[in-house]
Amino acid sequence: MQGDEIADLIGRVALGDRRAFVALYNQTGPKLFSICLRILKDRMEAEEALQEVYISIWQRARSFSVASGSSSAWLAAIARNRSIDALRARKPVADELDTVYDLADGGPDPEMQTATKDEGRRIDTCMEELEADRAVAVKRAYVEGLSYQELADQFGVPLNTMRTWLRRSLLKLRECMER
């Protein structure tokens, strides 16, 4: 069907001609449905949107003017806009999270966090009781993961001396922590 014929049908629909409306539907329905389906990607939603498109056409046919553009573009714009509105009206995924039961937090609870912080403060206090180079060696061995040999090389001491430093430092830390 040519644009002039569609424009004529829209003009007759504006006057309330039901037969013209049926003819317009029969001529433009498949194209407008394909627009709705392409945007919504769901056949049922596209059918509902198409129904609303034709309700809108029936109600707004008087506002169509041949001078303002082609009749096919006007119909396609109504279908596209109605489909986009339907997309926007879909319930956002975030709303579904509100209906889900609260999930347990896998992290430590506030009491455990406080206990961990207190333990950390106690360790820091006990580390201050060690000689400075021994405290650095303990941190590098047990926090940074350096080997005995790497520590011995860094501090310029024999390997067995480094082992002794670390062993004695750990014993002092244990004593301090048990107080």
Explain this structure to me?
With 179 residues, the protein is an all-alpha fold. It is built from 9 helices and no strands. α3 crosses α4 and α8 (148-155) crosses α9 (159-178). 17% of the residues are buried.
Radius of gyration: 39 Å
- In DSSP terms (H or I, runs of 4 or more residues), the helix count works out at 9
The tally of beta strands, per DSSP, is 0
Q: Report the sheet with the most strands, covering strand number, pairing sense and barrel closure.
A: none
Q: Average pLDDT across residues? A: 86
Strand residue percentage? under 5%
State the separation between the terminal residues, measured CA to CA: 95 Å
Quick structural overview:
Helix content is 77%, strand content 0%.
Keywords, separated by commas or semicolons:
mainly alpha
Topology record:
Layout: H1 3-14, H2 18-40, H3 43-60, H4 71-89, H5 93-99, H6 110-129, H7 132-142, H8 148-155, H9 159-178
